[in-house]
Amino acid sequence: MTDTPPLAEGYEISADSDRIDRERVHRWLSTDAYWALGRAREQQDRAIEGSLNFGVYESVSGEQVAYARIVTDRATFAWLCDVYVDPSVRGKGIGTALVAAVREHLRPYGVKRVLLATHDAHGVYEKLGFAPLERPDRWMALYLNLPTA
User: Fold this and answer.
1) Could you tell me if 3 and 37 are in contact, meaning their C-beta atoms sit under 8 angstroms apart?
2) Helix axes 22-32, 41-49, angle to 10 degrees
3) pLDDT, tens digit, for every residue of 76-94?
4) pLDDT tens profile 24-81
């Protein structure tokens, strides 16, 4: 699917990293996102610095209501991660519009594959063209700095 869903009226998307409300993003992710629970603020700040960052903001107040981060070389690879929509605005299509904007932002770079991992939002991403890996047997992971039991 290549259609770009509209963003709900009263909101705007920006790829300006300087607009990111770092405190809010850290609070969202470290306290409410299963993949980032307990993430240190310093680690989150480093992640922001090394990534493309997108925010969704209320047009009038400028308050940030959603976030997405993309790790990419802007040529061959991109990893979409840390997608989060504030609970107060969920159900308005903000997350779908945000991921579509990320997809369209990456398109001119010629990136052939954008990866992501999700536990519970497959339907959201499938609407935007994401699909399970065709050959998961070719992929491997190296896990560093994991806590030991």
Assistant:
1) no
2) 120
3) 999 999 999 999 999 999 9
4) 999 999 999 999 999 999 999 999 999 999 999 999 999 999 999 999 999 999 999 9
